[in-house]
Write a structure and sequence with these properties.
This protein is an all-alpha fold and 116 residues long. It has four helices and no strands. Helices cover 84% and strands 0% of the residues.
Length: 116
């Protein structure tokens, strides 16, 4: 009987603790929601299309850098395969070089396809 009371007392304390945590979490979320500030656009008459074009240039330059890195790794793989006379590594190197070229020149390929 005494053990049952301790168990119910522990259960009540754990529920109270859970309620305190939930109240603290709710207060934190409300504080963050109420203290947000609106972000206004720059007042310089900047063209939204130029911003999109700048973002596009940045993304394509990142893709080109990744493509050049992959191309370089393909060249290293091909060189190591020639040194070790490993035909499977040679084919992997050639495929990596081809993939690197495609990734590095993605923008130019898309321009050729769309004709823009």
């Amino acid at each position: 009987m005494k053990n049952d009371r301790n168990h119910s007392h522990d259960l009540t304390r754990s529920r109270a603790k859970a309620r305190r945590y939930m109240a603290a979490w709710t207060a934190l979320v409300l504080a963050l929601a109420l203290t947000t500030l609106p972000a206004f656009a720059a007042s310089g008459g900047s063209d939204p299309l130029s911003i999109v074009n700048n973002l596009s240039d940045f993304i394509f330059s990142c893709i080109k850098a990744i493509g050049v890195i992959i191309l370089g790794w393909g060249i290293v793989q091909l060189g190591m395969s020639i040194q070790s006379h490993d035909p499977s590594q040679r084919s992997n190197g050639m495929l990596t070089i081809a993939g690197g070229i495609v990734i590095a020149f993605t923008r130019e390929i898309l321009t050729l396809i769309t004709g823009a």
